[in-house]
Amino acid sequence: MSKETVQTWPQVSADFGDRTSQALSLQTTLLEGYGYQLLRTLGEGTYGVVKLAHSAQHRSNVAVKIVSKTNASADYMRKFLPREIAIIKTLKHPYIVVFLEVITALL
């Protein structure tokens, strides 16, 4: 994949205890390395979460979709997510988000 805006990260659950804070710290560190400062959660779904973040590069707030590779089905990762990315990249409308980049983490 080339540069688009879907962030991939393993889902974090309260069941992990200390691992939760470690995973959140790693997630924040990874995204900060790309110039994103996480602000708050906008929504949650079956395979991930959407967060409000500030992009230093774009000097504005952006929505960051974080997809859990561990919870998402192979079908979703292979078929549906790439199709979602391809469709969103083609949309040009003032009331639809602009797709910026994809960041993939093997964590």
Task: Provide the fold topology.
Layout: E1 6-8, H1 18-33, E2 36-44, E3 48-55, E4 60-67, H2 74-90, E5 102-103
Parallel strand pairs: 1-4, 1-5
Antiparallel strand pairs: 2-3, 3-4
Structural summary, described in words:
The protein is an alpha/beta fold. It is 31% helix and 28% strand. It has a five-stranded mixed sheet, covered by helices on one side. The chain has a single domain (6-103), classed as 2-Layer Sandwich (Phosphorylase Kinase, domain 1). It starts with 5 loop residues before the first strand and ends with a strand.
Short note summarizing the structure:
It is built from 2 helices and 5 strands.
Taken as a percent bin, the fraction of beta residues is 25-35%
Which CATH class? Alpha Beta
Helix content: 25-40%
Structural class computed from helices and strand pairing:
alpha/beta
State the CATH superfamily name.
Phosphorylase Kinase, domain 1
What fold name stands as the CATH topology? Answer: Phosphorylase Kinase, domain 1
Task: Give the number of DSSP strands.
Answer: 5
Question: What keyword list fits this structure?
Answer:
107 residues, alpha/beta, Phosphorylase Kinase, domain 1, globular, disordered N terminus
